Amino acid sequence: MDRYSGKQVFLLVVITLTGIISSFVLNQPLAIGFLPGFFYLIFLGWKKGVSFKEIRKISYIGVKRIKVVLFILFFVSFLLPSWYLSGTINEMVSVTMEAIDPQHFFVLSFLTTMLFSMITGTSLGTLSALGIPLISTAILMGLPIEVTAGAVISGAFVGDRTSPFSGTHQLLSRVLEISVRKQGKAMLLTTIIGIAAAVLFYRFMDVQFSTELQSSPNKESNQSITFIPFIPPLLLIVPVLFRIDIIKSFLFSILSASVIAIYDGHTLFKIANAYWKGIDSLGGGLLHMYGLLVFIALAGAYNSLLEDLNIIQPLLNKWLHSSRSMVSDSVKTTIATLMVSLMAANQTMPIILTGRSFLAHWTSKYSKEELARVMGDTTMLFPAIVPWNVLAILASTIISMPLGDYLPYAVFLWFLPCLTIIVSMFKKGRSYDSKYKAVS
User: What domain range includes position 29?
Assistant: First the structure.
């Protein structure tokens, strides 16, 4: 198949991003804004001789790849209503208020979610298990929920990026043909600095808002705590800890919460209505989710076509050709992976495309470890920053808050891409320029 021209690729990028951004700004369904780019991509494939039957087959494979994400979003729409009706949220908030010192609430929220995500290797499981009670507690304490959400998201993605149990961490190591141990070691410096910066930031936030807690209601230390409402979160957390399928974890949790809600006197009609419409002030409900399910299915088909038609990769191969230093390569790799993340709408494709395209270049001039550091600090985090990316949608949906509200406070997500370029500046002595001068 002949290579696609730069004009065709540029037009694809413009049409896709213009449609998505327009629908996002105008508050229209993302699926509608995604259709022009999707149809143009199909047209490009057809123009190169790919039959509609083959396009349909490739699209179906793409949707099949992300079926787990579709199931997670489907069950997430029921999670909040079920936990609310079963009394789980109220009980978890009570325990959280007893356990966490309000004067260090943001720091402890970050550290708690960070440790849990490092153990489980999943950001979604962490947000589902800990994000909901922590944000609910912040509401009752009168603390800004945007800062709390930023702390929770930052902590959850420390493990998603860094934990050896993380699927994306494992994927990056396979793409770069490097051991998990070496990859973790390569990321260690920026990981430590990133965590330290986040702790300092959230400590500053704690100091800023600690005075507002003086008027908050006192905690009721003698409040009786019952075990039954904790069954749903336990059925979500324990399977995740033991690496059991997260879909089953969601299902067990929702079913148990539904049984408890019925036992507490809620009618089936009320439960069904809450599952469809959600809960006021908390969110959830399938009514608010089906549009996202359609968009994510389209994104899966789009990503599969983009990869199989080999549209982007040849341009990525050219992108680093003129680089003369590690900092230049780091900047170009960062820009490239950001552009792929803007188009791909998932976390997997940027890792695979960028890793495969840039591996030979980085290996010949530096090392796989350096590429692992740069991609770990950029490619692994950008999908959580792009509003229409599946990962960002999942995260914001679970905590029931728009990305734009908490992103300024999600320090770990945007600090590391800047940090990794700074680190590359200090490593420029190992760059192509230095080798070239030595030979000269």
Answer: 10-49
Model pTM above 0.85: no
Give Cβ neighbours of residue 331 (< 8 Å, ≥ 6 apart).
421
Q: What is the DSSP string of 223-290?
A: ----SGGGHHHHHHHHHHHTT--HHHHHHHHHHHHHHHHHHTT--HHHHHHHHHH-BTTTB--GGGTH
Count of structural domains, the chain = 2
Q: How many CB atoms lie within 10 A of CB 6?
A: 11
Tokens of residue 384, six digits: 């959580």
Residues paired with 279 in a beta bridge: 283
What confidence category does residue 41 fall into, taking pLDDT thresholds of 50, 70 and 90?
A: very high
Q: Which residues pair with 283 in a beta bridge?
A: 279
CA angle, residues 159, 99, 227, in degrees to nearest 5: 95
> Which one, of 110, 85, 89, 103, lies nearest residue 141 by Cα?
103
What span, in angstroms and rounded, lies between the C-alpha atoms of 424 and 417?
A: 11
CA-based end-to-end distance of the chain = 42
Question: Is residue 374, in this structure, part of any structural domain at all?
Answer: no
- pLDDT tens-place string over residues 162-172: 988 787 888 88
Are 69 and 391 spatial neighbours (Cβ–Cβ below 8 Å)?
A: no
pLDDT band at 108 (very low <50, low <70, confident <90, very high): very high
Q: Examine residue 397 and state whether it is found in any structural domain, yes or no.
A: no
Tell me: the pLDDT tens digits for 208-236?
887 555 444 444 444 566 788 889 888 87
Query: Do the beta carbons of residue 286 and residue 74 sit within 8 Å?
Result: yes
